[in-house]
Every structure is written in C-alpha cells, then in structure tokens.
Design goal:
The chain has 394 residues and is α/β, with parallel strands linked by helices. Helices cover 35% and strands 27% of the residues. The strands form 3 sheets. Strands 1, 2, 7, 8, 9, 10, 16 and 17 form an 8-stranded mixed sheet that branches. The longest helix has 21 residues.
C-alpha cells in the first residue's frame, strides 16, 4: 500500500484541530488534517461564543457565520424563576458575544487553514495509530478506500472518543454529561440579545437548560443533564414554559456528550499532543469549550511547528504547549470543576437562596473559575453555605 508522508497529522476538524493546522501550516510545515464527517461542525453545540473567542481565532465578526445580534446579557433562573439573576456584560467588565452558525464558522476556519497550505481530507476516519521506526503510521478509511499516512508528529483533536487518547494517553477520571438540543422556530423571546439559563434539580439534574436566540424567533434550546433522560427533561421544560414555546416547532435535533471532568493530566508525549474535548479542555460548570479549544489548538500548532523545525519533538520540547495553555486556562478549568462539584450537590431550596445572595459577577466568577476565593469569602457570611460551599472554594 502506498504511504502518504507528512510532517504533522492533525486528527479532528473541530475548533482545536482547525486552529492547530492553520498554525503549523503558517510555519511551512507539511500538514494533513483528517475529519470523519462530511462537513465541519455537526456536533451539537449551543453555538454561543464571546468576542474574545473570535479574537483568539483571528477572525472578525461576519454575517457569514454569525446568526444573532451581539449578545450582551444573560438571565440565570433558579428553580424559583422570579428570583432570576441578570448578568450584563458591560457591567462586569467583559465583552459580549454572538450565537454562531457553527458549521459556517468552522468552514471559515477550514478555509483559512487551506489558504495557509493545510491539506484536508473529509469523510476520513482514523482507525489505527501506531509508532513505526520513529514515525507514526495511521490507517485512514476514506471514500477511495483505506489510506496509510505517515507523520513525524500527531495532534489529536478528535473529541470524546479520541483515537489518539485511547491509543497513547491515560484519561482516568474523564467524565461526561449528556447534552441534547433542539433548533426551534417560532419561539417567543422577549429579547433577542439575551441568553437564558435555567438550573434546578427538577429542570436539569446536574446541569442546566439553555435558550440561545438566533434571531427572528429561531433559537437553540438545549439541556445538559446527569442521571436523568435528557430528552424527557427538555420536553418537560418546553411544555411548562408555554409563553415561550406554545407556537414553536422543532426544526432539528442533535445530541452529544460533553466532557466535564476537567483537563486530563498528560497532554503531550514524544511526537504526540492532545487538544480540545480529547484533552478535557472544557469549562466544567458551563460546558463551554469553543474558546478554550481554539486557544489550545493555537498554542499546540505553534509549539509543534517550532519543534519540528528545530528537529526536537520530545515530550520535554512539546511541554511548552501545556505550560503556555495552563497560564490562562489551567486554573480556570480546575476551579470551575471544583465549583461544579459543589453546585450539583445543592437542593433547589439552596439554589433559590443563592439567587438571593449572588450578583451577576459572582455567577460569572463561579461558573468560569475566575475568582473562587472572592465568592467563598462572600458565602462565609451565610450559615447555610459557610461550611457546605464557602470553605471548599477558599
């Protein structure tokens, strides 16, 4: 069988893989990216992205991949919904964001990677990856038949069931949450610039429901939940909110698991790197992963290209990637995991009490792992939460 040779093989065409491939190709490194689906972005996703995410992706906002007007507010509803907490982006010092057409967004990222020289194979399934004479050999199923690819370095951006992770890495403690989403038409949403989040054990045990507006009555309505059937919970939520959904209809449905166990311990080996969902690089409490995946892919691609150019793809050399990534994201992911593990243990009554205590800034800090100590100190003043939550955050 003829062998196709490359410097770098990127497996997976999500945000991490497309960014990594663009960055390696910019350095003149011969790169192949393989994606198992027929188009990018088919995995279900709420499609919310901050303006900082686009900056990280080196993209300007464009009508070609943005569905909504700029999103600048979030309403978080506890079980007692009238106690909702509003988060206004400008009021807490953060930029707003958008609802993406994720497929179009990733198509644009793919176009930019191609422009830099990346070779892309679609409907190409990586089935086996082994070390061979100092290189990596990957067996890839394509429409033309089985192809054998040889590469000096492999970047695994291939998601939850990552071939690269299963073949070479230990992902002990890797956990996931079940997510399901409807794209719905004719929704009655009061404000198209506002996201809505609903929490509670009777709404979404261990997770939350989201309503993300896409304009003109169109919305992503989804749920992430643990220990309860996602579709049953989401259908019940829609049924019990007729003011929003009485005339709505489901246009499409998608389901996918999302990793919520935090970043795995080992991200690199000699000639190997893991990024994105494959590495657990998702904010555990929110399930948000586009921004962190792009950041990981960007750093991994730059480090990989420099390592190849220097002729040193050892674990020690490639460790510059996790070191740089963790400067911004490591503690955020760890602290969000800590918060997530505490919040899921609270009763609906306790969640309602938190809504009376928390400001929008508190929720943002807790959910994103920004400043747990400040939130913990605040909760020390309340006997209900002093021992149960506050001290664990400090």
């Amino acid at each position: 069988m003829k062998i196709a040779s490359y410097d770098i093989l990127v497996i997976g065409g999500g945000p991490a893989g497309l960014m990594a491939a663009r960055k390696t190709s910019q350095k003149g490194v011969k790169t192949l990216l393989v994606e198992k689906e027929k188009q990018f972005g088919l995995k279900v996703c709420g499609e919310a992205a901050s303006t900082a995410t686009l900056t990280q992706a080196e993209l300007f906002p464009s009508e070609s991949f943005i569905c909504s007007r700029e999103i600048n507010r979030v309403l978080v509803y506890p079980p007692q919904e009238e106690k909702k907490v509003e988060i206004y982006a400008g009021g807490i010092g953060y930029s707003g964001g958008y609802i993406l057409n994720k497929m179009a967004f990733l198509e644009e990222m793919g176009r930019l990677a191609l422009q830099e020289g990346t070779e892309i194979w679609m409907v190409a399934v990586a089935n086996q990856l082994v070390r061979h004479d100092g290189l990596f050999r990957c067996t890839i199923g394509t429409a033309e038949g089985v192809q054998l690819v040889e590469a000096k370095l492999v970047i695994g951006c291939d998601g939850m069931n990552s071939l690269v992770a299963r073949s070479f890495f230990n992902r002990e403690g890797y956990r996931r949450i079940s997510c399901l989403q409807y794209e719905m038409a004719n929704c009655h949403l009061a404000d198209p610039t506002r996201l809505e989040i609903f929490i509670g054990n009777n709404v979404a045990p261990g997770g939350y429901v989201w309503i993300f507006p896409k304009g003109e009555g169109l919305a992503n309505v989804g749920i992430g939940t643990q220990g309860a059937p996602a579709r049953k919970c989401l259908d019940k939520f829609i049924e019990t909110h007729p003011q929003r959904f009485q005339k709505a209809r489901v246009l499409s449905m998608g389901a996918a698991p999302v990793p919520i166990g935090g970043q795995i311990e080992e991200l690199v080996q000699d000639g190997l790197m893991l990024c994105g969902d494959a590495a657990g690089q998702v904010i555990p409490l929110t399930g948000a992963g586009i921004h962190s995946a792009i950041a990981a892919g960007r750093i991994a691609g730059q480090v990989a290209a420099e390592a190849l150019i220097e002729g040193n793809i050892s674990r020690e050399k490639l460790s510059a990637y996790p070191e740089q990534f963790n400067e911004t994201w490591g503690k955020r992911i760890t602290d969000s995991l800590k918060a997530q593990q505490l919040i899921v243990k609270l009763s609906d009554q306790e969640l309602n009490q938190l809504a009376d205590i928390f400001t929008g800034q508190d929720i943002v800090d807790l959910a994103n792992g920004f400043n747990l100590a400040r939130v913990g100190i605040k909760l020390l003043k309340y006997p209900t939460f002093a021992a149960k939550v506050a001290r664990a955050l400090l």
